[in-house]
Design brief:
With about 140 residues, this protein is of the alpha+beta class. It has helices spanning about 1-25, 40-50, 55-60, 65; strands at about 80-85, 90, 95-105, 115-125, 130-135.
């Protein structure tokens, strides 16, 4: 009986850990709400990026960016980010944010391991802000 209790306890702990780990792996941002500010859309994109949730990240981006081979989501693991609060505003419908991404680097070596400055352009299309570009220069 003692061994059966120990086995049942071990199974319960294992199932609980598996469930908790599964939840943590999927912890991400929700897709941006209609009418969300540019900063909120970028935050959604970056949180999803860190979580490895490219579907949510792409929901915050334009289809053109999501299909672009230079899109980092799924190619580079980002563990943290920070966003400079004052974006450049080339027009009322376009903003560019400077971010710092902490990455594990890219397999081809074009993105170094550690902190990398990355610029994200957002544009208002149909009344909604979406990420339209990303790169090492504005």
């Amino acid at each position: 009986m003692g061994r059966l209790v120990m086995t049942a306890t071990t199974m319960l702990v294992g199932i609980t850990l598996h469930a908790l780990t599964g939840c943590a792996a999927r912890d991400s941002a929700s897709p941006p709400l209609p009418g969300a500010a540019a900063s909120d859309v970028l935050d959604t994109y970056l949180r999803a990026f860190v979580a490895g949730d490219c579907a949510t990240a792409h929901a915050a981006a334009t289809p053109t960016l999501a299909a672009d081979p230079s899109e980092l989501c799924g190619e580079v693991k980002v563990s943290a980010f920070s966003v400079r609060e004052d974006p450049a505003t080339p027009s009322p419908n376009k903003v560019v944010y400077m971010t710092t991404l902490t990455t594990n680097g890219s397999s081809d070596g074009t993105i170094a391991r550690g902190e990398t400055v990355w610029f994200y352009g957002l544009q208002r299309e149909g009344g909604q802000w979406r990420v339209v570009s990303g790169g090492s220069g504005p």
